[in-house]
Amino acid sequence: MHKVTSEELFQRALNVAPGGVHSPVRSFKGLDRAPVFFKKAEGAYLTSVEDKKYIDFCQSFGPLILGHLDPEVKEEVHRMVDTAWTFGATEIYSLELAEWITSTLPFMEKLRFVSSGTEAVMSALRVARAATGRNKILKFEGCYHGHVDNLLVKAGSGLAGAAASSSAGIPAEVAAQTVVTPLDDEQKLQEVFHNFGKDIAAVIIEPLPANYGLLIQTQEFLKKVAELCEKNGSLLIFDEVISGFRVGLQGMVEKTGIRPDLVTYGKIIGGGFPVGCYGGKKELMNMVAPSGDVYQAGTLSANPIGMRAGLTTLKKMQRLDGWNVLEKRTQKFTDAIRAGFAKKGVPLEVSHSASLFWIHGPSKTPIRTIEQIPGNQGATFKGLFLKSLEKGIYLAPNAYEVGFVSMAHTDEILEQAAQAIIDAAE
Ligand SMILES: *Cc1c(COP(=O)(O)O)cnc(C)c1O
């Protein structure tokens, strides 16, 4: 009997969805082959429609810190599915997760659940504008904050900080409300504050930028950002959609010791279900409807299945000291890859932080800005990605996406994966 292939499914998908996908990076664009169609996932593994098993380092782009189908989360999800799917009314499930977060992360005095990271960011910006009476938002080149109109911008020409839209369909007037500056450049940052400071409602930053490679910032730079916000009366928003509950229980707030005004979450907070969250200082969050006049709502907000999956995931991570475990495993894993590359004379490097890693070409200095990313990153990655795929390793299908290690990636699986990646690179 004929077995369906990824190639055939992709041809069908191209007829019904733009590029055959429902989020662009899934499409394997530029990789000269059809994306792999999967039918099953468990632990550290994905199974394709061809019945090939892959060790998965994409993990749905970050949410699955326990791996696919974690048994404890699965049980809670099953229980919730048998109890209720959505209420559209007050219930105990979001209350429990909200209480757990506010008591565990003291800077989250009050919060609101939404259904995605994009929504969380969009809502936090609205609060910041309402609170300051200002319109402009400052973002950094190389940080991603979801597909918010205001934030799909790149550096424009002319005055330092001027932005142009990076997507069609965004009015120039909307892009003009955003100011863009490079990461790791205090001087430019100062200049931008000099030009626009009194109009900047909020500065939004990924404190661990991990959406355009892994651009680890210095503590000094992040401190400077916070200091200039304070000085200019602009709010500081940490976008922790990717770093939150990934680098540690309290995320980058804990790692940097910087207290932002607002923080956005997504990904891990829903344990694999669509959940986002924004929150922070009480006086700011009290501005949100119905207690205040910043309107924000959602039919499926605080969906109980996501609430239970999220809480179970977070409690399990806490119980297992998961962040420490992952940090050690990822150190060992990336060290093994580095040693293998060195031994075989493969000119590639691995950056990592907590359980995030990113493979890139050699660089004399740490890569902290998008300009510092080696120019051949696309071509380098393509070769490595396709060979790795052959050897049963599924990396996120894009040169600028990071890899994620989950609790389901045991030392044995990681040893095997490291060897496969080394062989693939050769
Ligand atoms: C993934 C991500 C988003 C967008 O979240 P979605 O759930 O995809 O809308 C926003 N900010 C950061 C830092 C992210 O990593």
From TrEMBL:
This enzyme's EC code(s):
5.4.3.8
**Residue numbers bearing the N6-(pyridoxal phosphate)lysine modification:** 267
Family matches, as Gene3D superfamilies: Aspartate Aminotransferase, domain 1, Type I PLP-dependent aspartate aminotransferase-like (Major domain)
A Gene Ontology term for the protein's cellular component: cytoplasm
**Keywords for the protein's UniProt record, in alphabetical order:** Aminotransferase, Cytoplasm, Isomerase, Porphyrin biosynthesis, Pyridoxal phosphate, Transferase
Q: Name one GO molecular function term.
A: glutamate-1-semialdehyde 2,1-aminomutase activity
Query: So, what pathway does this thing act in?
Result: Porphyrin-containing compound metabolism; protoporphyrin-IX biosynthesis; 5-aminolevulinate from L-glutamyl-tRNA(Glu): step 2/2
Enumerate the cofactors the protein uses: pyridoxal 5'-phosphate
Q: Which reaction does it catalyse?
A: (S)-4-amino-5-oxopentanoate = 5-aminolevulinate
Pfam families xrefs: Aminotran_3
Q: Where does the protein end up?
A: Cytoplasm
Q: Which domain of life is it from?
A: Bacteria
Signal peptide (UniProt feature, chain positions): none
Q: Name one GO biological process term.
A: protoporphyrinogen IX biosynthetic process
Q: Which family does it belong to?
A: Belongs to the class-III pyridoxal-phosphate-dependent aminotransferase family. HemL subfamily.
The record describes its quaternary structure and partners as: Homodimer.
Q: Which HAMAP family match?
A: HemL_aminotrans_3
Q: What is this protein called?
A: Glutamate-1-semialdehyde 2,1-aminomutase
Q: Which gene encodes it?
A: hemL
